[in-house]
């Protein structure tokens, strides 16, 4: 039968349906060459072959291959334990009644869902009011149970930008505040008990840009998953962008077959719906003038 060991002295196999199914004597209705329908030892995997590389995500194929070799256990990295905290007095959870001056949260759902797409999931996700002490209490409470804390909002220069006070209150070390890019300039990176705290802008598109450019490399590092690193490619502009860039800027766009175009001509960092259909960010260097149709640009694939 299929899969059986070849008897000693045999060098080919006849398909059963090409015979009269005889047992003591059999009629064969096909010609065979040496080693027809024959599987050699080691033809799939040879001694010394590498089956899984360090840093690869174990897929169903890996599991099948490992099982075929009798491997029942492999050492793996534990998934990063992530906390996601959204700050803001004005933020309400979808489904709640929206009063005057309040807005529905999008950042928690945006980043939570993006992490899910990466095969990760926050073990803690909360919305906390603009209160530096309350945010600090939460960080103290969870820091020993997580590998990374992501916050959104509260990192600019307004009276409600409370993350600066929070970092001081808990005795964390602020590594940097503000980066020279648009959107998402006021992003902050801190360390508390040797755990990274990445505080993103509160504007939805700015938070998303910060996440893709700054958080993804951290996730790749702490998870050991190189696939989480973003990729860069060159593309040809199919549209024009008529604003000069006084600082490094990232513009939402759609990449297809070596070309890049805009879905909508809406680029405010507070706008999120214009990201629908976008799959890349155009990386525009500081001091660049208007982008012209046919110009080559560099894009970050999402």
UniProtKB/TrEMBL annotation:
EC category: transferase
Known catalytic reactions: adenylyl-molybdopterin + molybdate = Mo-molybdopterin + AMP + H(+)
Domain MoaB/Mog span(s) in chain numbering: 83-221
Keywords per UniProt: Magnesium, Metal-binding, Molybdenum, Molybdenum cofactor biosynthesis, Transferase
MF terms in GO: metal ion binding; molybdopterin molybdotransferase activity
Entry GO CC: cytosol
InterPro entries membership: MoaB/Mog-like_dom_sf, MoaB/Mog_dom, MoeA-like, MoeA_C_domain_IV, MoeA_C_domain_IV_sf, MoeA_linker/N, MoeA_linker/N_sf
SUPFAM superfamilies: MoeA C-terminal domain-like (SSF63867), MoeA N-terminal region -like (SSF63882), Molybdenum cofactor biosynthesis proteins (SSF53218)
Enzyme Commission numbers on file: 2.10.1.1
Pathway: Cofactor biosynthesis; molybdopterin biosynthesis
Taxonomic superkingdom: Bacteria
Pfam families reported for this sequence: MoCF_biosynth (PF00994), MoeA_C (PF03454), MoeA_N (PF03453)
GO BP annotations, alphabetical order: Mo-molybdopterin cofactor biosynthetic process
Transmembrane feature ranges: none
Cofactors required: Mg(2+)
Family listed: Belongs to the MoeA family.
Function summary: Catalyzes the insertion of molybdate into adenylated molybdopterin with the concomitant release of AMP.
Protein name as annotated: Molybdopterin molybdenumtransferase
Source organism: Clostridium carboxidivorans P7
Upper lineage: Bacteria, Bacillati, Bacillota, Clostridia, Eubacteriales
